Amino acid sequence: MAKKIQDPDFWYSFLLPYVNWHTRRAYRRFEVHGKENLPKGCAMIFGVNHSNTLMDALVLLSSDNMRKVFIARGDIFKNPVVAKLLNFFRILPIFRIRNGVAAVRQNDDSLNKAVDVIHDHVDLYIFPEGMHRTKHSLLRLGKGLFHIAVDANKQFGDQSPVYIIPTAIEYGDYFRYRSTAMINFGKAINVTDFFKHTTEENEAANINLLKSQLSDEISKLFTYIPDDDDYDAIWEIVKMKNEKRAGGLYKKMLRNRAIVDKVLKFREEHPEEAKNLFERVLQFADDRKKNKVSVMSVTKKYPFFNSLWRAAVLLLGLPYYVASAAVTLPVWLTTWIIRKQLTDPAFGNTVSFGVRFVLFPIIFVAGTIALFCNLHWPWALLGTVLLYFSYDMLVDYGELFRRWLSDVRWSFMKRLRKQYESLNLNNLF
Length: 429
Known about the structure:
This protein has three domains: 10-219, Glycerol-3-phosphate (1)-acyltransferase (3-Layer(aba) Sandwich); 231-291; 303-412, no CATH class. It contains 19 helices and eight strands. Strands 1, 2, 3, 4, 5, 6, 7 and 8 form an eight-stranded mixed beta sheet that branches. The radius of gyration is 24 Å and the shape is globular. The protein has 429 residues and is of the alpha/beta class. Helix 15 packs antiparallel against helix 16 (377-388). The protein has helices at residues 10-25, 53-61, 80-88, 101-104, 107-119, 144-156, 191-197, 203-219, 231-241, 248-269, 271-290, 295-298, 303-327, 329-341, 348-374, 377-388, 390-411, 414-421, 425-428; strands spanning 29-33, 43-48, 68-73, 91-94, 123-126, 162-171, 180-185, 189-190. Strand 3, helix 3 and strand 4 (91-94) form a beta-alpha-beta unit. The protein is 60% helix and 10% strand.
């Protein structure tokens, strides 16, 4: 019998902890919520928002140690070598009509394999939007996920119920490496039960009902903002109003959602005032970005005093930073060069992850050997520990320095501070 894509594989299992370790290290904070919503011992298809290219799949992969299979767009499977590698990574292709009629015909094979995956109670992950987009919003969902769910329910729903799991990923920043990531699993949609009780006989209509339900459920799991002309202004207001990080990522997301609700209500009740406010918010956002002021500096009561303790930390950490920059030069220089060539900046974190994944272990092993060959073991051990954290130190120090500069600039920009105060956000929301 031919090996299935979901079958256990020694090399995959051997590499998985290493990959997951690197993924977790790519974020300063990483949280998983809603696992209590996952039913046990049944067929599950996870429908996930898609906002950060390959990092979305890697973040999901590292959420637990359960076997997972992913579905990705078919055009990345064109190269036979790449296709074989993606199959090893447990990724199935789905082709779209723009890939050609011949390519679309291959979908039947992928859909059959996908049904077989969940039949074996292996988790299947799909990004039903069909493409990534760095927004706190959702595109219209495609039908592939739902065809799999319907086919699976027809084949074995009477023996094992089929569930769709609404899932959302929320990032602290789509473009900055070592930001934050949160996975949030929602309440399962029982597809088998849905078809037992639906009064609609048309399958296409039932699929549309499931699509609408999944879209609604996913939108409840992260900071969701309607994708309209006011999106940028509303997101800017959310960032300025919810600068606090207390309580973890989940509570921060809930605060974000509460602010969005207040802004949308304000827009509904006072459309002209809201239009004027949004224009001024966007102008302020443009001005602060031109002056290289972070949104995290904007709402601080005493930015200058805040910058003093950051300056002290930066001075204390400077020797370690310089040493870290020297030993990890191949990593950060290669990353910087590749990211400069990107046409889609959303791939930036994927590049940062990939370069670190390949180069940093080489630096760490070579450096550890050199340390133990040239120093007494206590000093060599200390050097190894410092080397282990060196790249994280480099990135985090750079981020702290950026925020310190922002605090200093904000402290001396009286005109910009008055512009912010004139928005009157604290009283409005």
